[in-house]
Each structure stands twice: as structure tokens, then as C-alpha cells.
């Protein structure tokens, strides 16, 4: 984040002294403390827990120090303090919005201030292997950070051809250490910390490395529960936990998903004196309102969709491929169960990964693992659609139609997130060399005609990527088939409902046609009119009613049911014709 009223070098690093060097350049414990400044030992050494006494002591020391300085130095000191206040306020109130500087530079203090609250107990696996040897070990956060900072310990041994750093979990100290060690691009780090849960999978080419962001779909433990995505709207942190809470995955949330890690801290914690805490609270409330409303709506919709759903966890996996044979994978799940099959293949001395000792083939294996998990998801949806089809064929119900509607919506989302994986695989196969050539400096390529452009993927990995592409094509086609079957079942249900309604109306029409003449005549003869000699007298009885009603029914009923009689006649004729044809062939 750029600093206001400060000088910067060509790389964007600030040349203005930090706040700690500006407010009080001579702390009391320093040997360079000026003798002309009065130092009250009794006041400074007396234990106290009140904030007012601390502020009064600091104010007294600053006033004594400023009184002994030259007026020009005091003015310069005041200007620097105002600049520090502006810088601290900008850090606190900053949010990644429109027009913000792209990328995340871990070397800047602003990055530590913004992402330092992202902490999680990660599981880091370091695998070094070649065709002859392999070494696999695991570390925690502190061990890994010390390992990255120690150049001698992190140096690769001569026999190592491929180094795979597999990071399970999302913690700023771990990502910062590995990014500084291997020079990860700031735009790639921005994709790691600021990605939508269902953002499209992609492949970005940089001069230092190849960066892949791929969404992995894996089945959950309970197939009857709705899908749970352990990532928030803007970052890889759970959105529904308060700061300091422990999630089920062991993540300690110190910052919210709207990229406001400092909004809930006091101004005194930042080392910025005089900054009003009301500004911080107002900024936090205004920034979190939209995200909170969005999360409430998502939770309400998820609660309404509870039922017979396929539990699918969608987790983004970030892959870095370097030309020196280093592969770095980062995913937000604090376990390494997802990549355990690949680790087992690394340990096997006769596997393709070991015999080839090719880092790009390791990346291909990770992509193949993601596609295999997608195949398991498709198989689960096939079983679910067969279950719904059996229910629809037995007895269509509105509950089954509701489940089919939810299933179709889930398939649409999965289709949208899985389709870009096919594009990524095809791009790696078809345009790897072309995209790598676009990174080469034109001036260097013109001077050095013997310079050969090489892509990040080897020829052997491209061959295996063809198989991954075919499997991904099958996954997408099966999703389309399942979605089509679900839509046909919904249409069949409503067609059957309409047909049953038509049958009910036809039966009511037949009853009405039969009894309407009788009702009309009964109403007519039942009227108390004078002079109705036709129904009076001992010689007249109820036979007169039937003598009139039956001829009317004989005329009216055939007129209304004539179409049904014609259809019955045509059906009998077709059955007789079919039976005669079958008999002729059998003879």
C-alpha cells in the first residue's frame, strides 16, 4: 500500500523512517539518551496499570525531549509525526477496493499489518526425491519458517532433482516465509488470499514460475448433508466465526473475511498516538455490513436446501512450478489427506514420479488427482439421480421434484467450476511453449539467436496430460447427462400430474353428461305447477319420467362421448392388426 507524503525508491519501498524511529528517537533505556533531558526514575520505575499514568509519562518525556531540540528539529519532528499518523490511519482504513494497488508484497510492513492476523496450525510436508533416493518429512509453522530463513538448512542436496513443498493450511507466517525464499509473484499471492470460493481455475505464467489455481471437488463424509465450503467470500478463511474462535479445522480467526485485520484493534496497539478509536469502529461497521448480509442470505438458502444432497467440498489448490524442479502446493485444509496418494507414489522407488524425477510430471499427477476426485463426485451424483428416478417412476411427489431442483442447481455450479479445469489442462498441453516465449525479453532474444525457449511442462507430462484431458471431458459430459435426466424427470412429473388432472376432469365430464338430463327432468317434474295433467291421476306413474329421460340420454350421451368411442375403436383395430402381423411372421 503506498504511503502518503513519503519518498520511495524504484522498487516502491518507502524511504521514510518508520514510526518507531520518529516518535521517540531516544528511549530512556538507550545509552544515547541526552543528559539534558530530565529522567524521573521514581516515576518510570513505579509499577502501575493505569493508561493515564502511562500516557502522562510518555507525554512528559516527549515534551522534555522536544524542549531541548532546535526549533527546526522540533518542526521536522512534528512533520514526521503527522506523516506517521496519516500512514497509520491509511493502513487501518484501507480495504482492497476499486483502484487498489494489485498484488501482495510480503516484504512491505503494510502486508504484515493486513495479513498478520491470518494464523493457522499448518501441516507442511517437504519431499525431496530423485530416481535413486527420496526423503519425506513434516514440519509445523515455526519449524518451517526457521527452515526457510536458514539458507544452509534449506539448500538442496546434490542428489535432489525435485523438491515438493506441500502446505496444508493457510497462515501468513508460512506463506510469507516461502514467498520470500522462492520469490513468489505478488499477483499470485493476491490470488491466494483474495479468491472467491468458486473462482475459475486458471494458469498464470510468470518469469520465475508457473502458477495454477485449481478448484478441487471432493466428497464429504455425510452424503445426506448439504455442501460445506470451508472458504469465505473473499479469502480462504471461514466467515462465520468471531475473532479468536477455534474452528473445526483448527484455524484461529484473527481477521475477518473482508480484509480488515486491523479494524478491531485499538490505535495504541498500532503505535499510532492520538488516533481516534471511533473512526476505527465506524470503518469496521461500514465495511462489514455488506459481507454480513451476504453471509446471512447464504446461510438461509443453505438451511432451506437441506435434504438429500451430495456433500461436496470445493477447495482451491494453488500450485507453483519452478524451472529448477521445485513445486509448491498450498491448500486451505489443514491436513494432507488430499495429497496422500501422490506422497505414497513419491515414496515408491518404481513409480513414474520417481523414475522420471520430473517436477512437471508431479504437477500433472496433482491435476490427475483433482480430476479423479471429480469422477467420484460424478459417480455420487449418478447414484443420487438413479434413486430419484426410481421414486419418480414409482410415485411422483413434489418432494422428489424439490430434491431434483436442488440437485440441478448444484450440478450447474459444479459444471461452472469444473469446466475451467479442462481449459487449464488444454492450455498447458497446447500453449505452454507459446506462453513461456511471451515472457522472454525481446532484446535478449534478438541478441542471442541460439536461445531456445522451453516451457514449464516436459514432453512426458504433456502425454499424460492428454489422459487427464480425456477424463475431464468425460466428467463434464456426465454432468450434462445427469442434468438432462434430472430435467426430464421434472418434466415427466409435471406431465403425469397434468395427465392425471385431465383424467379426473374426463370422469367428472362423463358423470355430468349422464346425470345432467336426469337432473333436468327431475327438476322439471318436481315443480308445483297447476294443470300438469301428465303427472296427475291414478293412471299416471313414474314410468312417464323414464319414458322421457331414457330417449334423451340415448341421444345426448353418445354425442358427448363420441371422441372417446372413436379412440377406443382405433385402439382395438391397432391391436387386431398387430396381432395378425405377429401371427403371420410366426407362421
From TrEMBL:
Which Gene Ontology cellular component annotation is one that this UniProt entry carries? plasma membrane
Native species of this protein?
Mycena venus
Q: What is its main location?
A: membrane
User: GO MF terms on file?
Assistant: cobalt ion binding; cobalt ion transmembrane transporter activity; magnesium ion binding; magnesium ion transmembrane transporter activity
One Pfam family named in its UniProt record: CorA
Q: Which family does it belong to?
A: Belongs to the CorA metal ion transporter (MIT) (TC 1.A.35) family.
Q: Which domain of life is it from?
A: Eukaryota
- Presence of the UniProt keyword Membrane in the record: yes
- Matching PANTHER family: CORA FAMILY METAL ION TRANSPORTER (EUROFUNG) (PTHR46494)
Q: Where in the cell is it found?
A: Cell membrane
Q: Which UniProt keywords apply?
A: Cell membrane, Membrane, Transmembrane, Transmembrane helix, Transport
InterPro entries for this protein: CorA_cytoplasmic_dom (IPR045861), CorA_TM1_TM2 (IPR045863), MgTranspt_CorA/ZnTranspt_ZntB (IPR002523)
Spans annotated as Disordered: 1-73, 236-271
**Membrane-spanning regions, if any?**
508-527, 543-565
Its membrane topology = Multi-pass membrane protein
What spans are recorded as compositionally biased (Low complexity)? 32-42, 56-68
What protein does this entry describe? Magnesium-like protein
